[in-house]
Amino acid sequence: MKPTLIFLLAASVLPGAEPAWQSLFDGKTLAGWAESGFEGVSSVKVEAPFRGGPGAIVIEAGTTLSGVTSTRGSALPRTHYEITLEAMRLAGGDFFCGLTFPVGKSACSFIVGGWGGILVGISSVDYSDASDNETTKSRDFEDNRWYRIRVRVTDVKIEAWIDTEQMVELELKDRKVMMRPGDIEKSQPLGLATFMTRAAIRDIRLRRLTPAEIAEAAAP
Q: CATH code for 3-7+15-218?
């Protein structure tokens, strides 16, 4: 079966959600994902069940970056979509979720828990990293606790939430959104990475936005 067909068949409808959410992780295997091939020595595996709950991707701490990259390629939308997942820091003191996602012809990363374990932001914006642009925020994170991560992309803005708190609302007009140069570029177009940190990721889902949501994002 072709990967694109598998991707479409994975759709699962949630009440009130149009279009349907599409599951990007089956909870049992790394189907649709491959280790990113970062320079740091690390490993990625699926534990199912994970701590008595649904299966999770466990990313071991590496000497630098660790993680997985989607193999879905052209099946992924580049704009007008939303992606969500749950992430847990198991051990370590740097980012436990570096979610790389497409933005038009480019891509960028939503960094959660970086630079000492508290920094949140988009990397990169106008050549500035998540630690040094207008999206930079600080927040405390606990080990062994699930956090719901959500990112929404339209032609006019990038938005991101952690649980119910909105962390990013970045207008894209006259801005250059890009990947931080270096090994993290291997996460494109969609990837999950950690830095010297052990983490678990589960319930990865994506949906295309409705016309009403697209119009709302574009409204002044």
A: 2.60.120.560
